[in-house]
């Protein structure tokens, strides 16, 4: 909630400062064809994926030990499960980076 509050406070400040926006152009240079840049849609999609990933990962890592302990797993087993989850996440990020380099 604090992050959302900060975001709602920062956006108006940045718009007043004209920070992060494109440089000013001539009126003749602005065309309606350039209004919807395709990279902007990609950025929005990437941000949405990042938010969903953050929400699910946080929830999973918060409740995973309690669920595993309720199923009878000991502290060592929970530690091993966390190690495997983190190793899998690091491997996935590495593979996605390699794929991104080849695609881009």
Number of helices: 3
The major beta sheet can be summarized as: none
Unreliable residue runs: none
Number of strands: 0
Q: Give the CA-CA distance, first to last residue.
A: 35 Å
* Percentage of β-strand residues: under 5%
Tell me roughly what share of residues is in helical segments: over 70%
- Work out the radius of gyration: 21 Å
Order of helices and strands: HHH
Mean pLDDT score:
81
Overview of the molecule:
This protein has 104 residues and is mainly α. Helix content is 75%, strand content 0%. It contains 3 helices and no strands. Helix 2 (38-70) packs antiparallel against helix 3. It starts with a helix and ends with a helix.
What's the arrangement of secondary structure elements?
Blueprint: H1 2-17, H2 38-70, H3 75-103
Helix pairs in contact: 2-3
Short description:
With 104 residues, the chain is mainly alpha-helical.
List keywords for this structure.
104 residues, mainly alpha, 3 helices
